[in-house]
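Worked example 3 (structure in, sequence out).
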């Protein structure tokens, strides 16, 4: 296991001088998402980015300009073997995650890996076993779990506000960003699948997926249905070819329903006291259904940056030897759902059991 540098003692602290562990990061990938990871790591008192790696000369020039004094290289191995690095963030395309994550673990580094964790479940299982053997942490970037909206929804569900869960229905569509290496399911669905995994706390029993390719050989639109135990059903609409950006999720229970609109600046989550009551069950012809139409309220949602919270949590898990909730196993559960969806898609909507 890696040892940590210690930051200079803070002489201004009123409680007297205090030294803190410092987790030194190497970040691989400085494209769209990498700079966001680095910016948020940089803000943490207990973390420091000491090296950045990218294969692209353009990306390296940008990194050098933004972070003078930080080592910038095209050789990932330099980061993996450096004794001055405790943890590696893998922020590269999906097909590269496994090799980079494996090299990092083999060299005794904790890993923060972008979603989806790996390209298949065998790779994820191998990384989980390797990390366990070496007593290292894996965190998979399931960013949405750290949004105040998802945290509020989780709290409402745990407190029984919605009652027994009926369904989760999400639309996550926009125009682009097209990924070159994966289809829209592997790009966008990990967000919802990780949220469902977190909220429903059960794995689906079966998945159906349909979709179509129009532009670059990868499916750019897909519809996924997931059958969970206890009659909970989930549906996802993911699409790179939508004229407008929609991020709307409806979650319904026997007591209340909620709508989470992530494009709203305020009042992202609205809880509706609406539902359906069955008043009588005396005979098939005597079934009375009452619609309940009550108040709507919008819980207060903090304005926080999810990635910042997540990276602070990762550092805390490393320093205090805790297992992250979005660990390799959570990453594996999402990859298994993606694999089942891909198999169903290949068979034009066949029911695939997990
Ligand atoms: N959590 C989120 O909300 C979120 C958002 C966007 C992207 N992502 C994830 O982040 C990852 C990167 O996505 P992106 O949009 O930044 O991609 P990108 O193509 O913009 O950037 C990837 C960068 O990695 C570099 N790279 C590729 N292979 C490399 C290697 N072997 N060694 C060093 N550098 C290498 C590329 O040159 C490029 O600069 C993906 O896994 C994606 O799913 C997550």
């Amino acid at each position: 296991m890696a040892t940590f540098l210690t930051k200079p003692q803070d002489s201004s602290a009123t409680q007297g001088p205090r030294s803190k562990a410092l987790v030194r990061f190497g970040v691989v990938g400085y494209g769209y998402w990498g700079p966001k990871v680095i910016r948020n790591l940089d803000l943490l008192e207990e973390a420091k980015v000491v090296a950045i790696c990218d294969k692209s000369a353009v990306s390296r020039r940008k990194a050098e300009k933004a972070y003078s004094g930080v080592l910038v290289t095209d050789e990932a191995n330099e980061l993996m073997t450096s004794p001055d690095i405790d943890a590696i963030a893998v922020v590269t395309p999906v097909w590269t995650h496994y090799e980079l994550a494996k090299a990092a673990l083999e060299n005794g580094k904790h890993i923060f890996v972008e979603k989806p964790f790996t390209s298949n479940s065998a790779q994820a299982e191998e990384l989980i076993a390797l990390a366990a053997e070496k007593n290292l942490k894996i965190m998979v970037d399931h960013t949405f779990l750290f949004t105040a909206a998802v945290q509020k929804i989780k709290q409402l569900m745990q407190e029984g506000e919605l009652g027994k869960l009926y369904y989760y229905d999400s639309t996550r569509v926009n125009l682009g960003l097209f990924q070159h290496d994966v289809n829209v399911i592997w790009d966008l669905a990990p967000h919802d699948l990780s949220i469902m995994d977190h909220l429903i706390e059960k794995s689906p029993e079966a998945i159906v997926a349909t979709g179509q390719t129009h532009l670059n050989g990868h499916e750019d639109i897909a519809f996924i249905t997931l059958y969970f135990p206890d009659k909970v059903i989930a549906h996802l609409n993911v699409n790179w070819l939508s004229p407008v950006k929609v991020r709307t999720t409806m979650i319904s229970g026997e007591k209340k329903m909620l709508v989470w609109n992530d494009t709203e600046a305020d009042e992202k989550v609205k809880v509706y006291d609406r539902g359906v009551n069955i008043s009588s069950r005396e005979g098939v012809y005597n079934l009375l259904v009452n619609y309940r139409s009550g108040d709507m309220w919008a819980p207060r949602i903090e304005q926080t940056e999810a990635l910042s919270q997540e990276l602070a949590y990762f550092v805390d898990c490393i320093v205090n030897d805790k297992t992250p909730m979005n660990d390799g196993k959570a990453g594996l559960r999402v990859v298994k759902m993606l694999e089942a969806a891909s198999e169903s898609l290949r068979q034009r909507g066949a029911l695939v059991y997990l």
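Notes: The two ends are 35 Å apart (CA to CA). The chain is about 30% helix and 30% strand.
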